[in-house]
Design goal:
The protein has 340 residues and is an alpha/beta fold. It has helices at residues 48-61, 77-88, 103-111, 129-143, 157-174, 189-200, 252-266, 272-284, 312-319, 323-336; strands spanning 19-21, 32-37, 69-73, 92-98, 115-119, 180-184, 206-212, 246-250, 293-298. The strands form 2 sheets. It has a 6-stranded mixed beta sheet with strand order 1-2-9-6-7-8, sandwiched between helices. It has a 3-stranded parallel beta sheet with strand order 3-4-5. The longest helix is centred in the middle third of the chain and has 18 residues, at 157-174. The relative contact order is 0.14.
């Protein structure tokens, strides 16, 4: 085991997350599965990396100063991460969320000193909540003197955090030998930074983006999405700079099934987007050669999803799936991923 380290402040505890071999997830698959456990970051998600990077960049360039205000749109995790990062630098933080955001996540943002502004109605022209959040951000920027928007959807410091951190750590831990990299997409900062590192270091790695049904990213068709953290209702600026080798789209029920399978087989309680990645991996396994090494992101922890993804009543009421349907989904996922 590595030696314990003493770091100067919580910001320095971001990153260096473990890469965990999963032997029980799909035991008959014949492939090596490694999970990048981003859920153990101080804020509980991979968003700690871009939050720290964007705040530091804004302070360094003078766009932001101590005592200033950041206004940002978030489906949840970046809001938690920015609340922590802004608080550490004496910066006021106002987070614009929408009605899909988990109640626990909202409480975490406020507990860390952030202010929450909730958008309850979708944009009347597009029917999209993300677009409505963007409009609300613009209103707040006009109302709050000197406020700045870090704009996670187009800020190059977002993918840079994953280029310099997430993918570098994965590459160094594996000797740059990764056959398949899988990540859920929303802003596409994570997969964009990782893909750029793979390209620049000439790694022979297939990059798989896991998106939500109803997301418009990478040519998708817009439709309502019940779970936050995966997909987008607009084509983000960062997504135009990413060309994944494959895009797999998952339904909300797939996310529920995948998250529960990960929890029960490996004891890792993860969020909805990671559940989507697990289900996508199950679908992908029959097409992979024995011995293939797959790395996937555990984007965040599952505690904020206990009242949704892990709650049978919520799944029944919102996804029209009872306990029997969930059990059938779990059985199907295991069968699909079984080799032979």
């Amino acid at each position: 085991m590595p030696m314990s380290l003493i770091v100067d402040g919580i910001d320095e505890a971001v990153g260096s997350t473990p890469l965990v071999r999963l032997d029980a997830l799909f035991p008959d698959s014949g492939i090596e599965i490694l999970a990048k456990l981003e859920s153990v970051n101080p804020g509980g998600s991979t968003k700690d990396r871009p939050a720290r990077g964007m705040v530091r960049d804004a302070l360094k360039t003078g766009r932001l100063t101590r005592g200033g205000t950041v206004v940002e749109s978030s489906s949840g995790n970046l809001g938690v991460a920015l609340a922590r990062a802004c608080n550490a630098h004496d910066v006021r933080f106002v987070c614009v969320v929408d009605a899909r955001t988990n109640a626990t996540t909202v409480r975490l943002i406020t507990a860390l000193g952030g202010e929450v502004d909730v958008v309850t109605e979708p944009d009347p022209e597009t029917g999209d909540l993300l677009t409505a959040r963007f409009h609300r951000v613009e209103e707040l920027l006009a109302e709050i003197p000197g406020a700045v928007n870090l704009y996670q959807y187009g800020n190059p410091a977002n993918p840079r955090a994953h280029y310099d951190g997430t993918m570098r750590e994965i590459a160094e831990a594996t000797g740059h030998q990764v056959d398949v990299l899988m990540a859920a997409v929303s802003t596409t900062g994570t997969i964009g930074g990782c893909a750029a590192y793979i390209r620049d270091h000439r790694m022979d790695t297939r990059v798989v983006a896991v998106d939500a049904v109803g997301s418009v990213l990478f040519g998708g068709t817009a439709a309502p999405r019940l779970l936050p953290g995966m997909g987008a209702g607009v084509v983000t600026e960062l997504s135009t700079q990413v060309d994944p080798d494959q895009v797999i789209r998952m339904r909300a029920l797939d996310c529920v099934v995948g998250a529960r399978h990960l929890a029960r087989s490996e004891g890792i309680l993860a969020g909805a987007s990671t559940g989507g990645v697990v289900s996508a991996l199950g679908d992908l396994i029959p097409d992979l050669a024995p011995g293939t090494r797959v790395v996937f992101m555990v984007h965040d922890g599952g505690v904020p999803y206990l009242e949704t993804v892990y709650d049978d009543e919520w799944v029944r009421d919102n996804l029209d799936a009872d306990a029997a349907a969930i059990a059938e989904g779990l059985d199907q996922l295991r069968r699909t991923a079984r080799r032979g």
